[in-house]
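Final report, closing paragraph on structural work. Over the funding period we assembled a curated collection of sequence-structure pairs, and we close with a single example.
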Amino acid sequence: MSTESQRRLGASSLAILAVAFIAAVIISNQLFKGSRIDLTENKLYTLSDGTRRILSNIDEPINLYLFWSDKAAEGMPSLRDYALRVREMLEEFEDAAKGKIRLNVIDPLPFSEDEDRAAQFGLQGVGLQGSSDPVYLGLAGTDSVDNEEVIPFFQPDNEAFLEYDLAKLVSTLANPERTVIGLVSGVDMAGRFDPQTQQMQQPWVVYTQVQQLFEVRSLGTSFETIPDDISLLWIVQPKNIGNATLYAIDQFILRGGRAIIFVDPLADSDPAAPVQGMPPGMPAMGQGSDLPALFSAWGIEFSSSDVVADAQLALQISAGPSRRPMRHFGYLGVTSDQLDAEDVVTAQLSTINLATAGHFTLAEESQATLEPLFTSSQSASTIAASRFSFLQDPSTLQNGFTPSGETYVLAARISGTLPSAFPDGKPTTTVSSDDNEEAVEVDDSHLAEASEPANVIVVGDVDMLGDQMWVQLQSFFGQRIANPFASNGAFLTNALDSLAGSADLISVRSRETYSRPFTRVEELRVDAEARFRATEQRLQSELAETERRLGELQSSREDTGNLLMTAEQQNEIDRYIDQRAEIRKELRAVQRGLENDIEQLGTKLKIINIALVPFLLATFVLLVVWRRNREVAR
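Its predicted structure, as stored:
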């Protein structure tokens, strides 16, 4: 074959390859439209199974309106990246919903109808540095009957819960009915008539707060059935509950019902009747509560006779005869360090205040899973609840207190396939001729084991719901104004909101964030900072030693009236000055070493990205061309 023929063949082959490539792209776009491969390490663009089930169960179309100030945020690269992340997640929702979700992206320009519409939805325009106009990054959703749900502003620091927030909004629009909560309470949270003051007591703030979000239906503490329209139980201070009521709660949970349970070894908010002979002015003793039958069946143990005391988290209160401020080891202020940052219930909370709380442990061979929501610190131990009875001086709790070094679970999420506390069926009471005895009635609807994995939240303190632990009340023109100073109320509403959702929504937890830090750079920085601190500590210790030595020299001088330094003092100072200069030089070397390590790492990455990868690709192409030419020549 001549050289001219080879050239024509090569040109024709390239033309055919180009046409084939374009055709393949067009065909693949049509055949694989919507198909994606998520190659990210944390599967950022893959929706969870729970979210997909929520989207597949949408009956009526849902309209989503993403208000994003694209033009106003031109100089904000980090916010623009996060806005793109939100939009891509919403597009994933739209694609997975198979036409049941319609996404509209709107840029609400200042003084436009779109901005007025965003304000009507209740979205927030935030004034940010670098933009003279308010920046919108919020979502509004409507269903076929004009129910509305909004996310006023997507906070970048809440990215781990982005999928959960979007799934919750869609789930709420798909199921707009208010959740009915069954309240089982051994304390008067809803307010009652006080015979001593002859006035009605105000309801607890948490009770009023929950009423605004859910339909609360009081079931009392003695019942045998739970209405079918109740999907969530709120159990507070359960005491002296009969077997029939326990059985109803047991079967409710085993059938997929959810519950949040507040028990307490010593609830100050539920005082017992005054004891005869009690000294005047002595505080009343609180009562304890527990659900031993249910907890034992589930493999959960609760310290009903012990209170968790914590030296690190102890709150300062005014107590004792002098009413002076003192730290109460039984009153705890749990901070974000002890809260679970990966659970949607506690992730965004700051402080939760508790009083004489108990703790939970998982029994051996338990089939349940216990996920702590918040715990004590390691400076904690347990104290007998009886020690808090008629306690006048909380400072005495510090006498002989020794931390165990363990962390105690104060609240937890219980999940798993739970067994029944009544394996033989529904308990009934019959009267014999001699004595009362229990018989078992055969019940075809009885469940010996949960039909689906349970989801229960247990809390070892009832007092945390009381107003005095988390909210300050003020009267303003006859209205009660509540100013929270802790996150107790937010914890309860978050927990109820989480449990009230579908099982699919509950399964959507936090996920990894979009940002990918340079972990190697951070490791270098941490290592260098550790060396820097060690050197700095050595400098400080040598400085202290030099000053101590100078003090000794000064005190040993006999010519105290002479202001001139002795030769020994001058030599010591000169030695210190030289040593200080040497150590400062070492500190600068450590800092320069850190910068050099980072620069070297950056240089290596640049060489790999700019030179090595193109070189390998070019080498591969040349090898392919060389092999093809060789075959043509043959």
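The two ends are 10 Å apart (CA to CA). DSSP finds twelve helices and 27 strands in the chain. We thank the funder for supporting this effort.
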